[in-house]
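REVIEWER CHECKLIST
Item 1: Sequence provided? yes
Item 2: Single chain? yes
Item 3: Sequence as submitted:
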Amino acid sequence: MNENTAAAARVQAQFDEACALHQQGRLKEAQALFESILKTDPKQFDALHLLGIIAVQSNNYQLAADLIARAIATNPNNSSYYSNRGLALHKLNQFDAAVACYDQAIAIKPDYAEAYLNRGLALQELKQLDAAVGSYDRAIAIKPNLAAAYYNRGNALHELRQLDEAVACYDQAIRIKPGYAAAYSNRGLALQELNQLDAAVASYDQIITIKPDFAEAHYNRGIALKELKQLAAAVASYDRAIAIKPDYAEAYYNRGNALRDLKQLDAAVASYDCAITIKPDYAEAHWNKSLVYLLGGNFEAGWGLYEWRWKKGDMQKRQRSFTQPLWLGSESLKGKSILVHSEQGLGDTIQFCRYVARLNEIGAKVFFAPQQSLRGLMKTLGLNVIIVDETDASLKFDFHTPLQSLPLAFKTNLTNIPSSAPYLFADPARIGRWKEKIGADGFKIGVCWHGGAAKTESGRYFPAKHFYALSRLENVRLLSLHKGEGGAQLHDLPMDMKIETLGEEFDSGPAAFVDTAAVMKQCDLVISCDTAVAHLAGALGVPVWVALQFVPDWRWMLDRNDSPWYPTMRLFRQKSDGDWKSLFSEIQKSVIQQMGASGQQSWEK
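Item 4: Structure as written out by the authors:
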């Protein structure tokens, strides 16, 4: 054996030993041998490639990409080199470069299923979701039992909101790989979004059977159980998730939400506090803690935490930026000007616009920028309030404040809420027109059963058919104050039930509620769900009854039938979650008593 042959044999022996060490997981020893080989032969492409793989396994992704690039420069026709360099670039968030590497791998080896799979993952990161699905499809066509391709195809379809198709992909992944916990988990999430909550819980239960210490499965199971109103079971699931993962801030947060809905307010606050201890900048936990304080009537603690709303994702995009300083009550406003800007829903603006007049009382010149649709109504606040468009560049003012920061600025508690009503007023000309149209006959009840809030607030609303018993009372007229979502229910009422509608012209213009306000002034009573209609009736000083879910929005607090915000308001509360039937039975009895007190007879038709 000549010297070159002997040297080559020694290198091969080193290489084989290094590969064996790598397979045994002895990465540092393998690395040392590969580096020794490269000192002898710097262009030994297999050693460069395997060193690159060790760098990936050691989370040194830039080194990995560089080493495998050197291997490719020496041996440009190895598909695995391109594929593994793509993995390193993916980890470096260089997704376009990763896709280019996978394309090279596939060009060399067209049936490279794993390269198509990883290409799909990079395309998904680039939000090229349809292309990602196509890449997964190619992987599956080549290797029909590649469970990961079905799983990730499901994830891409999930992002595309093709939820049924996503579930089918997760099912296929599970058929191929029965213990595929991640597929069960994401299947459960998709089923939740399809509102198939029992099926979602069953999916999480299957994961937990396979992998009892899968904290995320217990957590997501808790979320599904909460949506099913199985609150105690939800708390138990969150508890299990926390036992497995003690620093699970999100589980503590959602546990607090479930405890709030169980009316266990102190326990809810304690759970939010645990979430905040783990994650001090957890805006949603601070925010929901504030709502629990406000719900319990602890305004002093609640208003300060309420300012955390600006750090929540859904509120950050609503936050205005001004060069003028924010006013939260510290500086004197005497002789100063201030811009008050709306921030949340129409009902919120109607409730809190009462504070604008308080600013006048302490010597400020007030510019008020409500939502455009409410400007007409807000002009009735008084001559000293100047209604403006906040985007008007010519506006000059000294301070600004969001409308719902004013309760904090004025140190509002249960004893000093500015509760006099009316503080908004209907247009006299519209009152006259609607009085003529509606007429004077009957005991007129304006009704509203639905608002425009998101799915998460659907418990605030009830079906219009719950007004049936009232509609059957002699001399009672139900006038619809409803606009928008939920209106189709009027076409699906019982045959002997009537709710009068007010025509296409009712609040048909750009100004919101101007006709509603005028019609309310014709009503003997308004009965509404928790929506802007209830706030408007209270602001107008009209008698209004509000039907509330078991645990209502914070502003209605708990266990009282009046509202410190509105002197003409009466609150009716569910006795158990979802029980509108007994609530409306109580309303019917109260209407009969009210009509009797006003000298009007009532009996069932």
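Item 5: Key structural point noted by reviewer: Residues 3-23 form the longest helix (21 residues).
Item 6: Recommendation: ____
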